[in-house]
Amino acid sequence: MKVLLTGSAGFIGSHVAEALLARGDEVVGVDNFNDYYNPVRKERNLRVACTNKNFTLYRTDLRNYEALETIIKHERPDKICHLAGMAGVRYSLKYPLLYEEVNVKGTQNLLELARLFGIPHFVMASSSSVYGGRTNVPFNEEDRVDFPPHPYAATKRAAELLGYTYSHVFDLKVTALRFFTVYGPRNRPDMAVYLFTNAIDRDVPINLFGDGSARRDWTFVLDTVRGVIASLDRPFNYEIINLGNSNTHTEMDFIRAAEKALGKPALINYLERPASEPLITFADISKARRLLDFEPVTTFEEGYSRFFDWYKSEGREG
Ligand SMILES: NC(=O)c1ccc[n+]([C@@H]2O[C@H](COP(=O)([O-])OP(=O)(O)OC[C@H]3O[C@@H](n4cnc5c(N)ncnc54)[C@H](O)[C@@H]3O)[C@@H](O)[C@H]2O)c1
After folding, report:
1. pLDDT tens, residue by residue, 53-93
2. Quick one: which of 57, 118, 291, 305 could link to 29 by a disulfide (CB 3.0–4.6 Å)?
3. Which residues form a coiled coil (predicted)?
């Protein structure tokens, strides 16, 4: 199988690339190595994939339709796994137009090319953010998600809707995967697990929004990756599927884990929790279990320890 994988240099994308290559698939990576965080990290993420003869990399922007068209015409992939995107919630409040260009227009560019070149199966990354601030848990795919609380969530929901339209009108098989706070080796440095650990490590205060009691359905990256691969193996007409751990921990749990790993206490700067930050995320994963045989297996202790091993060895740099 030949998979066009967007966002292949990113945190989740680079793990998906390695998992596909490990089982003998061909991977055509597309990434623009933007500087939302240090692109040196993205180069490092791809170190292993780049040694594999079945991996080809294009340093291309999703917003460039002609460039994508040239790649797809040349490579003729069997499937598209679309993980590229602008991912930070707070950054989306600063640059909403950029989020629309990349997450909506960029996604439609790919859907359109899938239609024109007869690529029948499209898997894309959506987000638990589309559930907004709801406190009715666990979040189910049937829940109403018409009130995205920030531009990031709105663009992810818009991309899901475009996916529906392309499946309905043009007969593509489209699956949108709603990821829940993914963490692990190669973690994005703007995410809580990284920020907490790095602040304690450098003896600077953690800027904590709220009192640390907010709960997240933290999902270990290799569990998420198994769900992505299962989706690539199982085309459906159109499905939205939660990929979470279905087991929540508080932000304070991660701060305590980081304190223990680093052997020193956190300094905490308590800030008001902005409205864009939900109090809880919690995935109902019964659909993922049913359709994908998805089962997250990594405990919080094991997941944090694997994150921390990476952090010590190379995650501090860059
Ligand atoms: N990490 C999480 O907890 C999480 C949760 C929910 C959803 N997601 C979604 O999963 C996907 C992957 O997230 P991640 O955490 O690996 O983020 P990431 O930022 O590490 O990876 C995204 C990659 O996309 C690339 N990219 C961004 N804009 C691009 C463009 N215009 N053209 C080409 N490439 C571009 C970036 O360079 C980056 O390498 C994203 O779509 C994100 O919205 C992530």
Report:
1. 999 999 999 999 999 999 999 999 999 999 999 999 999 99
2. 57
3. none
Mean pLDDT of 176-200: 98
* Range(s) of the domain holding residue 59: 2-183+220-244+282-297
- Residue 198 in any domain: the answer is no
**Nearest atom, ligand 1, residue 102 CA:** 31
Q: Is the pLDDT confidence value at 126 over 90?
A: yes
Query: What is residue 318's predicted lDDT score, i.e. its pLDDT?
Result: 77
Residue 253 lies in a domain: no
Look at residue 144 and give its three-state secondary structure: coil
| Tally: H helices and E strands in the chain | 12, 13
CATH code (residue 45): 3.40.50.720
Whether the CB of 102 sits within 6 Å of ligand 1: yes
Q: Is 152 a catalytic residue?
A: yes
Cβ neighbour number for residue 233 with a 10 Å cutoff: 12
216: Cβ below 6 Å to ligand 1? Answer: no
Give the chain's domain count: 1
User: Is 263 inside any structural domain?
Assistant: no
Q: What is the pLDDT of residue 147?
A: 94
In the reported structure, the alpha carbon of residue 116 is separated from the centroid of ligand 1 by a whole-number distance in angstroms of 25
Mean pLDDT on 210-219: 96
Q: How far is C-alpha 301 from the geometric centre of its chain's CA atoms?
A: 21
With the most atoms of ligand 1 within 8 angstroms of its CB, the residue from 31, 58, 61, 217 to mutate is 31
The pLDDT of residue 44: 97
Catalytic-role residue among 37, 131, 152, 166: 152
Res 36: pLDDT = 98
